[in-house]
Amino acid sequence: MLQITPQMKILVAMEPADFRRGIDGLARLCKERLHQDPFDGGVFVFRNRRGTAVKALVYDGQGFWLCHKRLSSGRFRWWPTSVRASEVTKTLAAHQLQVLLSAGNPEGAQAPPAWRRLQAARAIEVYQTTVLRTNVADFRPIRDKLTEIASREKHFVWYRGISRDCSSQTIG
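Predicted structure:
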């Protein structure tokens, strides 16, 4: 199951995409035109030229998800436009993506501001590079690496679903 969380990076391509493209074609489009890494776990959203369908491409660590939604009638009325020629994507929040997928205007969607920015992606990266390369029975390297990051970055670190305020205590 694919779950969109508030911590995920959600990028909407401003230019329409050729919907004959599959996973590989859209991943190449992410690299070449959007200048983004499709393997970073972000959600990349594309629309067709007519504005009647959207595709979302997500890499979950094991493989790609490609989700396609075509409206039965009507079009997606809202889609971001670029002010500058250098802009190729617009960043959306998770709640805004849900509104967009319902053919609504995400700019009108309101949600309370994030209280504190989470560094989940950094903790996951540490987990993947440390745990997967060490003996899982010995968790000392993991604790030491997370403590090092926590002391350097001084904010919340998410590790295996448990959050701790690293500015007031060490992990261990």
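Summary: The longest strand covers residues 53-59.
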